[in-house]
């Protein structure tokens, strides 16, 4: 998906605003996980859907921790098959 410079800038601004509101002075839930822990997640579609919002997900993790690695298996605007893994991400736990 090709994003205009204006849209890319808007994504960065809206993600920063949302994170500031959500995380504020710190993420209490994140403090329950050891700072040296390696964490990961997988997005799995249980039903047919259309993947939307990949640039926003990428921006959230870019702002939280630039060491996070996201492997997308399908592109934004593409439909995964049911029970197909759409993405994985991992890194050492980032405290916000």
What keywords describe this structure?
3 strands, 2 helices, alpha+beta, three-stranded antiparallel beta sheet, 96 residues, Aldehyde Oxidoreductase, domain 3
Textual characterization of the structure:
It is built from two helices and three strands, in the order H-E-H-E-E. The protein has a single domain, classed as Aldehyde Oxidoreductase, domain 3 (Alpha-Beta Complex), CATH 3.90.1170. A three-stranded antiparallel β-sheet has the order 1-3-2, with no helix packed on it. The two termini are 29 Å apart. The relative contact order is 0.26. The mean pLDDT is 79. The chain is globular, with a radius of gyration of 15 Å. The chain is an alpha+beta fold.
List the helices and strands and how they pair.
Elements: H1 5-23, E1 38-44, H2 54-64, E2 69-72, E3 85-92
Q: Main beta sheet: strand number and arrangement?
A: 3 strands, antiparallel
For this structure, what is the CATH homologous superfamily? Quinolinate phosphoribosyl transferase, N-terminal domain
Q: Terminal Cα separation, in Å?
A: 29 Å
Domains counted in the coordinates: how many?
A: 1
Alpha plus pi helix count: 2
What structural class do the secondary elements suggest? alpha+beta
The proportion of residues in beta strands is 15-25%
Indicate the overall shape: globular
Radius of gyration: 15 Å
CATH architectural label? Alpha-Beta Complex
CATH topology-level name: Aldehyde Oxidoreductase, domain 3
Strand order of the largest sheet: 1-3-2
Secondary-structure element sequence? HEHEE
What average pLDDT do the residues reach?
Answer: 79
Instruction: Give the low-confidence spans.
Output: none
């Amino acid at each position: 998906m090709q994003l205009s410079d204006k849209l890319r800038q808007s994504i960065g601004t809206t993600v920063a605003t949302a994170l500031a509101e959500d995380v504020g002075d710190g993420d209490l839930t994140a403090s329950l996980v050891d700072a040296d822990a390696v964490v990961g997640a997988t997005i799995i579609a249980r039903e047919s859907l259309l993947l939307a919002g990949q640039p926003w997900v990428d921006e959230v993790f870019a702002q939280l921790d630039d060491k996070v690695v996201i492997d997308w298996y399908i592109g934004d605007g593409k439909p995964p098959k049911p029970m197909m893994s759409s993405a994985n991400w991992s890194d050492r736990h980032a405290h916000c």
